[in-house]
Each structure stands twice: as structure tokens, then as C-alpha cells.
Design a protein that fits this description.
Helix content is 52%, strand content 12%. The protein is of the alpha/beta class. It folds into two domains: 1-41; 48-255, Alpha-Beta Barrel (TIM Barrel). The strands form two sheets. Strands 2, 3, 4, 7 and 8 form a five-stranded parallel beta sheet that branches. α7 packs parallel to α8. GO terms for molecular function: hydrolase activity, acting on carbon-nitrogen (but not peptide) bonds. InterPro entries: Glyco_hydro/deAcase_b/a-brl, NODB_dom, Polysacc_deacetylase_ArnD.
Length: 260
């Protein structure tokens, strides 16, 4: 009797697990479909890559400025004469304004990454607007102008966010096929190999100048010392995201048929 009861209980558990997985899979699929629909509706302001016919890439760094890691990133970029784009968290800007000033003065681009790194897909219109606007204001206090680029934390997408960004005449910047997940500390070799093996023309490369693991040199910084010379050797040119967009727009403009 106990054996029969145990068998029935096991079958029930397996059935429940299969049902739960199928429901999760269905919800995930629905969420992805909704995100794709939003991206399609706002494709005029969402950028995921640049000109695929040109050997250019854009290095981007999220979550800073960080008092320890950002200066090291800037030193490496300066050493190799590379310009990048920093998507900053507004709260961090208030703590490290001198680093934003240095980024700007050394020719890098500043983008908005919300004020406290929120998930915009889980927030109401008012809170999203406040987070974006606060960051715009903090950056402007330091460099005298507001960012024109926005990257949503977690790559989260919502219609409210898109409407707010469009109203501010900004672009939403995602990334291409290159996410080495450096924030998770997967290993210096993994970060290097992911970028080296997957890099393509027009890529927007996602990296971070902040890390919760506090060491002398983050894995990102160690990898960056190798990545930049390696990509240059392959013939890639490093540009800011706005330069990437400009070149893409110029290409699209050249390809438009002339009216007779």
C-alpha cells in the first residue's frame, strides 16, 4: 500500500513540475513577444547595432561612475586612444561628479542609465520619468548638457519608457550579440574570448565600470587591456555610440533611391 501511495505521489509531483514548467515557458514566451512588439513599434528610436558594412565597434560601460574602477577604465582608454560611451547611474553621478567631468573632457560620451538602476518594466510612468529626468539633471550640472542616449537596466523594455524617451528626443541603446556578462565575474578569459569570438561589424559591446566584487583590478579592467589591442589588430575602429548612429544614418541616407 505504501509503495502504491509513494508511486502516486511521485507521479503527481512530476505532473505538477511539467505543468509549472509549461506555464513558465508560456509566460516567458508571452513576455518576449510583448517586448518584441514594443521594439518593433519604437524601432525609430531603438538602436542595437551600427553599420554592418563598416569595421567599427562601440565600447559601452554601464553602472558607473565608480570611484575605484572608472579611473582605471579611463586610463586604459586614454592609453590606447579609444573613445567609449558611459551609461551612468544618476545616484553615482552625485557621488563622483569629477569622474563624469573627466569622461566628458577626455572625449567620451555620457548616456543615462536611470537614477537608481530600476527595472522599467516593473515601474509606473511617473517613477520612470522621475528616474530618467533626475539623471539628466545631475549630468547637466556637471558637463552642461543632458545625455541624448538612454540604456535601460536589465535590458528591460516598456511602452511607458519608450514614450518618455521619445518625448525627450533621445535614443534607446541596447547592445548587439555581445554580452560577456562581465558583471557576474565569469573569468577574464571568458570575457576576452566572448568578445574576440563574437565580434562583428557595427557591434555595440556591453561592459561595466562598476562591480560589486571589490578587488584591486576588476575582471573587466584586466580583459580590457587585451580586448582593445586584439580588436585593433583585427582592423576595428572604436567609436562612440552617437558616432555609430551617425554613420548608420549616413549609410541609410546614401542607400535611399534618388527621386527623378
Amino acid at each position: 500500500m505504501k509503495k502504491v501511495a509513494y508511486t502516486l505521489f511521485t507521479v503527481l509531483l512530476i505532473g505538477l513540475a511539467i505543468y509549472s514548467f509549461s506555464r513558465y515557458d508560456e509566460k516567458t514566451s508571452q513576455a518576449m513577444n510583448l517586448e518584441n512588439d514594443i521594439i518593433n513599434d519604437y524601432e525609430d528610436i531603438i538602436i542595437k547595432r551600427g553599420n554592418e558594412d563598416e569595421k567599427i565597434v562601440a565600447l559601452t560601460f554601464d553602472d558607473g561612475p565608480d570611484k575605484d574602477y572608472t579611473p582605471q577604465v579611463l586610463d586604459i582608454l586614454k592609453k590606447h586612444d579609444v573613445k567609449a560611451t558611459f551609461f551612468v547611474v544618476g545616484e553615482n553621478v552625485t557621488w563622483n561628479p569629477e569622474l563624469i567631468k573627466r569622461e566628458y573632457e577626455e572625449g567620451h560620451e555620457i548616456g543615462n542609465h536611470t537614477f537608481t538602476h530600476i527595472n522599467v518594466a516593473k515601474k509606473a510612468y511617473g517613477e520612470i520619468d522621475k528616474e530618467i529626468s533626475q539623471t539628466q539633471e545631475e549630468v547637466k550640472k556637471v558637463i552642461g548638457q543632458e545625455p541624448k542616449l538612454f540604456r535601460p537596466p536589465y535590458r528591460a523594455i516598456s511602452k511607458n519608457m519608450c514614450d518618455i524617451i521619445k518625448s525627450k528626443n533621445m535614443n534607446i541603446i541596447l547592445w548587439s550579440n555581445l554580452d560577456p556578462r562581465d558583471w557576474s565575474n565569469p573569468g577574464v578569459g571568458y570575457i576576452i574570448n566572448t568578445i574576440n569570438n563574437k565580434v562583428e561589424n557595427g557591434n555595440i559591446i556591453l561592459l561595466h565600470d562598476y562591480n560589486r566584487v571589490r578587488v584591486k583590478r576588476s575582471q573587466t579592467i584586466q580583459a580590457l587591456e587585451v580586448i582593445i589591442p586584439a580588436l585593433k589588430e583585427k582592423g576595428y575602429e572604436f567609436v562612440t555610440v552617437s558616432e555609430l548612429i551617425n554613420r548608420l544614418e549616413n549609410k541609410n541616407s546614401d542607400e535611399k533611391p534618388t527621386q527623378k
